Amino acid sequence: MTPDARETVDAYARHVNPAFMRLLGVLGYGRVFTRAEGNHVFDAEGRRYLDLLAAFGACPLGHNHPALRAALLACFDASPLFFSHVGPSPSAARCAQMLVERAGGDLSICLFSNGGAEAVEAGLKLARAATGRPGFLSCHGAYHGLGLGTLSVMDDTRLRGPFEPLLPGCETVRFGDVAALDAALRTKRHAAFVVEPILGEGGAVLPPPGYLAEAGALCRKYGTLLVLDEVQTGLGRTGAMFAFQGAGDERCTPDVVCLAKALGGGALPIGATLVRPEWHRKAYGTMDRFDLHGATFAGNALSCAAACATLSVIDAEGLVAAAARRGEALRDGLAQRLAGHPLVREVRGRGLMIGVELGPVDAAGLARLAAPLRAVVSEKLLGQWIALRLLESGVIAQPASQAWDVLKLTPPLTLTDTDVVTAIDTLGQVFDACRDVSSVLAAAAARIGRNALRGFAFP
Ligand code: PMP
Q: What is the set of domains in the chain, with CATH numbers?
């Protein structure tokens, strides 16, 4: 490792996240990434990686897109006032206008924030203030962010545990289950039904066709707001500008749409919560309520400049259509290449949000293991091992954070045809070497043992 990289590792382990650094040493993930350009990332040793993770979909333009860079430099050159506390900000106004035009319909108010959890939190607060109802309904396996409000609408026990008790009145239903949704909503206890159009961190899980439209109709019937968390699916990721505008869901009319990640072009933190005006009026429409929601840096000039540039590049380069086309090529190519693989249950996805679900757990090799070990191997270890082998083969991809048995791909929307071929070839080769679960287990155990002797050092 270079001396600079060693210094980074030591300081990070001392001052930022010691446990993360130890964890990276367990299997041998440890790398210091020093540069990123287009669809590739480079480490301190000069190795190049195709980025199929892209910060969980936060890099729609790839890394350091020249138009984004130019827009940020131009923003500084104009010496703007970065904030909007004493008057309206031109860049926030422009950014809100661009978002509202793309969302269509009645989503005409934009609340700015600094990221995904804040954008969802804004939706939850607005729904309570507008309806006067206390409860929230959300889905099993959802991911909405790590704030106390957003954790309250997630059912992950590991993430929630240390922070209980969270908000009261939160309930969950099965994702995609219209009957369960109807039964829960008819109690009229819920201010909002918060849902991702596709479960992202839950493992790229698609709902049945028309689910969002039916959810919208039920929410309207029972006076609950439909809050769509498009933090991961928004801005072209699924082959539509917003996932709710995709085929089959055209009739869906959400009350609130939450955006973040891609909006900052992979460079700046920004969240936006688009709201129908009648709900905004009810929640914050009077002069004694105008400041009930906000944050110091919300809608700052630099983040808004990044968002405007990102939306412009998405249009100018046709990235929504590109995501649809290349997403289909990647998904279908992977499905073909991995067909019949004993440890691949399904390849699925929409646009450039693709999941490779691992399993089945009763594959010949796994069936010989005791049940608890089988669960650990199939639900935890396999995905991490494959991600490690991909990294060592020059591809960055990770299991979904709520479903480690699903390898999730959220590459930049700028993915090229050559990148698609590289991705299919590399995944194919790594999976070829992982057909037999006993040899995967033996290799992983040997690796962990070797790294343990080195105190799980990085690297
Ligand atoms: N909602 C969804 C659907 C997400 O995928 C995420 C992040 N993975 C969030 C909210 C939270 O976003 P952030 O990490 O920016 O707070």
A: 3-64+318-453 (3.90.1150.10), 66-316 (3.40.640.10)
